[in-house]
Write a structure and sequence with these properties.
homodimer, 359 residues, alpha/beta, Lyase, Ornithine Decarboxylase, Chain A, domain 1, TIM Barrel, eight-stranded parallel β-sheet, 10 helices
Chain lengths: 359, 359
């Protein structure tokens, strides 16, 4: 994030500001890594929820996008002609949602995941009468202990269930890896692939993801596709893990000091309703750019409390950039963001198209 | 919250559901307490952000509403003719925001707070040329260590500053009390009132707030007005503190089980993008109504992980109500909520008018 505070003098606070030059560099950096290692890139758009940024990712070489919810995917597809290929990495459950999914499948190349026969049965019922089958990948639990089948054997069994279900076609394997889990991914996926191929089924896609270890993605060579999300913006959690520097953070919250009630305490107008309470294992609620000496030690809904050891050297009206702990949830708090770039004289206001699309 | 799951069979999940009968009872309960103790009620609408619920609060006897941001107040005022009196408990800083404030002051009886001469100067500059002065209360730090002047003497000095500033009129004192701090509020406010009255200034309003200790509000008899927010919905944090029971919780998130990948683990379709990561000192991210044996131990953005000691007894497609840790931040995540009541055959969809109004 470059500190172009002067250019943002007319922006009311708190506002979420995106440095497009930094975002473009982040997109290019991972695309180059993936290209060098023969990996397809399918960015998770949960981070930005902006068709415009999805277009930049696709222009850079992404094979399509990843979404988490049907309504999120529908908003993205409606927002850009360039989005032609969508993977929803989520078990879609319920007649109403599957009807939405079917409507979306008529517009773009669509795939989803499943981790149980119950989910497969629901999808099959919804797609049996469709002219084209729905591609379904098996979600695998490689150690993150969230969704996913528990073993390569279970993955193979579910692959067969999908392959024989009316209206569906087996599309491959998908996982969200555990922390530092490339070895676990490689082990699970290699074994599952072998078992599935032994049944005479092809495994066209093996999809993994996650920004924190994306630059080690090639350590699981069985993977064909990678789904980073946060990498487009980066955030304090990634800087703290050593995955990037502050200069690689493309999203920040512009905020105003509204009170300096004590020598070592200041209050800004960004609270949990913009920064969120996500800690991601950190202490404190964000990083004040250019002020390593400050700690955001407490958030109320509309107040951020900043403390210092020595005199805080802030006054009412001062404006600060805060890099949040977790960029993906901050994008989702605001109806619009402001895009800046070196060549742009004024920040450009852009609605966050898929904000709040949780259905 | 009454469990009317059957009536909500057509609702896609996750959805935020409000039991209006419970909300009405919550409103009546505190209004009765306040009436019995001669306290004015000025509910903080940050919790619901719905003009309709503000109307219920005003009909029940509230003297007006409290908002935290100018844009939030503007949305509420635009949403209901019944809202005629608004206190914004926030330092409003910056020319653009003060211009919005002036526009609002032409529509309703408006008051704000200040805790420094710098804030007072900005307000005075914006209102000096207005036909009617702006009422400004002094925000006092009675121990919460957020905003506010630090001592009764500072409060009195700032009261004088306001009283002599062009375009402003001194309106009284305001605080957000520390945990269990009625005694601290009584001590600070009595002393400040005495000092201010000694200068020949009246102190028409002394405003305190906070749901957790609202039923002890009368222990600070110097207070004339109380600003509870969360009380209208209640939440897990308040049940845990003993302030209410689960049956007094008017807001819940309706969610669907999308995976049961292990005998003691299930995943629901509500994650941090609806429940938020607010912990408020608790462990776990909400309470599954009717299932005291379950713990929501982890949230991803769109996944909630539920664990149990024994067999979890859930299957894909089951629907659950989750009472969140903190109701106020959950309202703010969704573009609409669904209102239910005993006499209503179908849930009523209602846009969350002031959602995301953080400016």
């Amino acid at each position: 994030m470059s500190l172009r505070l002067t250019e943002l003098a007319n922006l009311s606070t708190p506002s979420v500001v995106i440095d497009l030059d930094v975002a473009r560099a982040n997109i290019r950096r991972f695309q180059a890594y993936a290209d060098a290692h023969g990996l397809n890139v399918r960015p998770h758009i949960k981070t930005h929820k902006l068709p415009h940024l999805a277009e930049l990712q696709i222009e850079a070489g992404a094979v399509g996008i990843t979404c988490q919810k049907v309504s999120e995917a529908a908003a993205m597809v409606a927002g850009s002609q360039a989005i032609r290929d969508v993977l929803i990495t989520y078990n879609i459950v319920g007649v109403e949602k599957i009807a939405r999914l079917a409507a979306l499948a008529r517009q773009v190349r669509l795939s989803v995941v499943a981790d149980s026969p119950a989910v497969v049965a629901g999808l099959s019922e919804g797609f049996a009468a469709m002219s084209a089958p729905l591609t379904v990948l098996v979600e695998c639990d490689t150690g993150a202990n969230r969704c996913g089948v528990a073993s390569p054997g279970d993955a193979a069994a579910l692959a067969s269930t999908i392959a024989t279900a009316p209206g569906l076609v087996f599309g491959g394997l998908m996982t969200y890896p555990p922390a530092g889990g490339e070895a676990a991914v490689q082990r699970f996926m290699s074994e599952a692939k072998k078992l599935i191929e032994a049944k005479g089924l092809a495994v066209p896609v093996i999809s993994s993801g996650g920004t924190p270890t994306m630059m080690q993605a090639a350590n699981a060579p069985v993977v064909t596709e990678y789904r980073p999300g946060t990498y487009v913006y980066n955030d304090r959690s990634l800087v703290t893990r050593g995955a990037c520097g502050w200069e690689d953070c493309a999203l920040a919250v512009l905020t105003t000091v509204i009170s300096v009630p004590a020598a070592t305490r200041a209050i800004v107008d960004a609270g949990s309703k913009v920064l969120t309470s996500d800690l991601l294992g950190l202490s404190g609620y964000g990083h004040v750019l250019g002020r390593d000496d400050l700690v955001i030690d407490q958030l109320s809904e509309e107040h951020g409390r900043i403390v210092s050891n020595g005199p805080i050297d802030l006054k009412v009206g001062d404006r600060l950039f805060i890099v949040p702990n977790h960029a993906c949830v901050v994008s989702n708090m605001v109806d619009e963001v402001y895009l800046t770039e070196a060549d742009l004289p004024e920040p450009q206001r852009m609605p966050v198209t898929a904000r709040g699309r949780i259905i």
